[in-house]
Design a protein that fits this description.
By secondary structure, this protein is α+β, with helices and mostly antiparallel strands. It is about 25% helix and about 25% strand. Strand 9 and strand 10 form a beta hairpin.
């Protein structure tokens, strides 16, 4: 067993203990980045919730160790927070190389479930909720801690009337590095501020943007950005204003102001609280001057309409309307930074509730016909070489490889659609910015390690349910190595292609790897 394999904790019949103190009773469900267990604190004689944090399996041993230590530091920082609207952290442990966070046990339901079960909330009630969450965020920000994943699923409504912000386990202190350095984007599509999508550190203003998106989902029933794929949501959040709310009444202009694309255009926490207070009282709201544009002056906002014109000192900010006809969609837990292409995929992303289509191994060596292989790798043996649950066809200077990307530990056939959505998004994020890559492919005679430039990935249409492409360039801009990663239901598949005879014809190499990926995806559909 390698050091990257995650061994999940499986409690016995009520007798398994952690650190000799916490007796695990049963699983409560999946939370952000891990499983939450019900346990009994044998020392203090009370029930607690314990989160077993699952680190991404794609991390190296060094990255896992660093991510574990960072998660524990962040949880310990969250434990310092004392606020009725912030989930209490009682203890932080490390078990089998994984972080475990001991928290207070809450009884009730989260905001996501509440809206799904009861329908959208009235504007006044939503504004009241926003004030309570904003107060909790302000307390954390005063201690230099950002949340970074404010969304309806992380706002808990207790049976005794508390509104509690949960999942500070991925928060960070201001002076600590972000987990995105490992290629992972923290947050959920539709609720991540644009500056964080651009790879910037973000700040308290970013959490307030996410709060506004959460309130938008509460009053409207859908997030401010929805689309047919995680990439579509990302692209819209980076380039378009949110869809003007239809049900928000006086709250609508406030949400549009808080959802401004640039942090300096948004109201600060104090101004946002004043606006939400007015809406909670049923009054028309005022639009504040952005925090960095001159203080507390305000201008009256129209309460309705499909577009809001914000009058501010020093200029006017137009919030353009967008068609509200995009169907709502449950989004995966994470998304990625990507350079949008001119032809985004039109294939809808399935709901995470959809059943997984691939539950037994795919014979990837049978996904291409001899005729297809003759075009792709003319001198390779048609049978292919099984490798890493996939297959490769190689000859001197020419090779094609297809490998399922790890989704559910070492067994890609056990993954659900939601896990595949998240894996695809993280793979996309890992390839979302330009970098240098060192590679070699001994089976095609390229035994010397080569360092080349890899531009950002680009979206690719017509391959599986969603796909992106990236390539490695030599010093004069010619493609040496091209790859496509696509998702088909619960499978994420990578296709790599090299043909030294084509070097210099970038368009042909791109078309060839795209065609190979498309043919493999079509064959997978037939094998199902």
């Amino acid at each position: 067993m390698d050091n990257n394999t995650i061994v999940p904790f499986v409690p016995g019949p009520g007798d398994s203990t952690i650190a000799g103190r916490y007796r695990v009773l049963r699983a409560l469900g999946q939370g952000g980045m891990g499983t939450v267990w019900l346990a009994h604190d044998e020392l203090l004689q009370r029930e607690v919730a314990i989160k077993e944090v699952q680190l991404p399996p794609s991390l190296t041993q060094a990255e896992r160790a660093e991510a574990c230590q960072r998660t524990m530091r962040e949880a310990m920082a969250a434990a310092q927070l004392r606020h009725p609207g912030i989930l209490k952290v009682h203890d932080v442990l490390q078990v089998n190389g994984l972080p475990w966070i001991v928290m207070e046990l809450l009884r009730g339901r989260d905001l996501k479930d509440a809206v799904a079960q009861d329908g959208p909330w009235p504007p006044e009630r939503t504004a009241e909720l926003g004030l309570r969450v904003l107060d909790a965020l302000s307390a954390a920000h005063a201690q230099g801690i950002q949340h970074r994943d404010v969304k309806p699923a992380n706002v808990f409504l207790t049976d005794d009337g508390r509104v509690v912000l949960t999942d500070f386990g991925i928060a960070r202190l201001e002076d600590q590095a972000t987990i995105t350095e490992s290629g992972l984007l923290i947050g959920s599509p539709g609720f991540i501020a644009p500056e964080r999508l651009r790879g910037e550190r973000g700040g308290p203003e970013s959490d307030l943007w996410s709060l506004a998106a959460t309130l938008y989902a509460t009053v409207e029933g859908t997030a401010p950005y929805v689309g047919t794929s995680p990439m579509a949501v990302l692209r819209d959040a980076l380039t378009l204003p949110p869809r003007p709310p239809q049900r928000a009444g006086h709250l609508g202009p406030v949400l549009m102001a808080m959802l401004a694309r640039e942090p300096y255009q948004r109201p600060g926490a104090q101004a946002a609280a004043q606006l939400l207070q007015r809406v909670a009282r049923g009054e028309a709201a005022l639009a504040p001057v952005p925090a960095k544009s001159g203080g507390g002056k305000v201008a009256l906002l129209a309460a309705g309409g499909l577009a809001a014109l914000l009058a501010v000192v020093g200029g006017v900010v137009w919030l353009q309307s967008r068609s509200p006809s995009v169907p709502p969609q449950t989004a995966p837990r994470s998304t990625a930074v990507v350079t949008p292409s001119a032809t985004p995929s039109a294939t809808p992303t399935p709901s995470p509730a959809e059943s997984a289509r691939f539950t037994s191994p795919v014979d990837f060596c049978a996904t291409l016909t001899a005729r297809q292989l003759k075009t792709l790798v003319p001198k390779a043996a048609p049978a292919g070489k099984p490798t890493d649950n996939g297959c490769s066809w190689t000859a001197q200077g020419n090779g094609l490889s297809v490998v399922p990307k790890r989704v559910d530990d070492d067994d890609p056939w056990n993954a659900g659609v939601e896990a595949a959505l998240e894996e695809f998004a993280n793979k996309l994020n890992a390839n979302g910015s330009e970098t240098k890559i060192t590679w070699q492919w001994s089976d095609i005679g390229m035994t010397k390690r080569i360092t080349q430039r890899r531009p950002p990935a680009t979206e690719l249409s017509g391959v599986g349910d969603e796909a992106f492409r990236y390539e490695y360039l030599n010093s004069d801009g010619r493609i040496e190595y091209a790859s496509v990663v696509f998702r088909l239901s619960n499978m994420v598949v990578g296709v790599d292609y090299v043909n030294v005879a084509m070097i210099g014809d970038n368009a042909r190499i791109r078309d060839t790897v795209r065609d190979a990926a498309r043919q493999i995806a079509e064959a997978m559909n037939r094998q199902e």
